[in-house]
């Protein structure tokens, strides 16, 4: 198979997906904890926007939203279009943790969003204390989390997951309301409305099947995706309108083996870490692996080292990413946002999805970086 950044379906999953799609409630069971009320939607970004409209319906004014400055800007576009006021909270340049003292000083939020970046659980206790003082809605953005584990959906009001980011699905996200916040489900439904069914996903499936079955040598001649330089950001794009997940997406979600995917992601991350352990200027961003990783996040010793390794992997035509893009207001205020800017300038992301072979992937990346 071709080494890709995107998850790929294997033959067993496609065979299981031949069965009719289950009901939404059964499909989202892995992401719903006892007592939760949950919804299957297409994208977490649309779920956050619907939450903002639901809060505005109750308060009569656009909500003020607090969120970490180290966050993907384009993913926020649906939220921006609700009229919500976004306040970017300073973060640590070490691991992206919100500076809670600064957040308290900037408080008065209607919605507070905490992000489990790359699937790594963050400590929610400071966020819960801030919610208790200000009465805001506490939302966990778990778009990089494969499925709930200890530390995820831990005392918040709403948790948003994006299975389509970690499993081979054309679309599919889950918004889960905790037992004490289920009254928000009806306003959320009104805000979301009834999106049309997603268009035919056969092109998506054909592309993924080709990548899963073609030899990796084709990677060297196929068009290369991603940003050409480490310091370049994707061009602004018009956000897609909300849709209801297609029948194919539902079938694939029902066919997914979440536990097996978690094991394979850990295996791939561990194999890559072992293969790259001798590189003196590239270390794991998170020293422990308490969750199935979304990507293997590596921290370079400097922006120059990050760019050097990024260029080496691009020359080898291997998948590699930088953090997609920071919000323009964050970039424009580097002193207030120096932690976010530092992370953007030093973090590399490598694929670890379950379709990859740990030994082959590790050997390929080791060779590219050794000669880079």
UniProtKB/TrEMBL annotation:
Keywords: Aminotransferase, Pyridoxal phosphate, Transferase. Gene3D superfamilies: Type I PLP-dependent aspartate aminotransferase-like (Major domain) (3.40.640.10). It comes from the Bacteria. Transmembrane segments: none annotated. The keyword Transferase applies. One of its GO terms (molecular function) is transaminase activity. Pfam families: DegT_DnrJ_EryC1. Belongs to the DegT/DnrJ/EryC1 family. This is DegT/DnrJ/EryC1/StrS family aminotransferase. It comes from Phaeospirillum tilakii.
């Amino acid at each position: 198979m071709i080494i890709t950044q995107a998850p790929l379906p294997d033959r067993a999953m496609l065979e299981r997906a031949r069965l009719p799609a289950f009901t939404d409630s059964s499909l989202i069971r892995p992401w719903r904890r006892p007592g939760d009320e949950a919804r299957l939607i297409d994208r977490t970004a649309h779920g956050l926007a619907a939450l903002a409209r639901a809060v505005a319906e109750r308060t009569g004014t656009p909500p003020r939203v607090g969120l970490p400055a180290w966050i993907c800007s384009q993913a926020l576009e649906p939220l921006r279009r609700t009229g919500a006021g976004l306040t970017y909270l300073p973060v640590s340049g070490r691991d992206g943790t919100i500076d809670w003292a600064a957040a308290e000083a900037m408080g008065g939020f209607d919605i507070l969003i905490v992000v489990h970046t790359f699937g790594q659980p963050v400590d929610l206790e400071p966020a819960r204390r801030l919610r208790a003082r200000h009465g805001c809605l506490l939302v966990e953005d778990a778009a990089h989390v494969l499925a709930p584990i200890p530390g995820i959906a831990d005392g918040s009001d709403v948790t948003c997951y994006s299975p389509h980011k970690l499993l081979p699905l054309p679309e599919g996200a889950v918004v889960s309301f905790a037992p004490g916040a289920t009254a928000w489900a009806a306003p959320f439904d009104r805000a979301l409305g009834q999106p049309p069914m997603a268009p035919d996903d056969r092109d998506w499936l054909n592309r993924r099947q080709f990548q899963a079955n073609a030899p990796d040598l084709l990677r060297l001649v196929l068009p290369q995706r991603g940003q050409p330089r480490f310091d370049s950001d994707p061009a602004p794009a018009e956000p897609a309108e909300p849709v209801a997940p297609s029948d194919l997406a539902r079938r694939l979600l029902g066919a997914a083996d979440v536990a097996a995917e978690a094991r394979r992601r850990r295996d791939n991350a561990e194999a890559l870490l072992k293969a790259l352990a001798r590189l003196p200027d590239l270390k794991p961003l998170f020293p422990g692996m308490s969750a199935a990783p979304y990507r293997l996040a590596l921290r370079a010793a400097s922006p120059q080292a990050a760019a050097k390794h990024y260029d080496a992997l691009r020359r080898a035509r291997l998948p590699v990413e930088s953090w997609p893009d920071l919000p323009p207001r964050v970039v424009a205020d580097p002193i207030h946002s120096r932690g976010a800017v530092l992370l953007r300038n030093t973090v590399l992301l490598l694929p670890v999805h379950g379709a990859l072979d740990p030994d082959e992937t590790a050997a390929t990346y080791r060779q590219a970086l050794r000669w880079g």
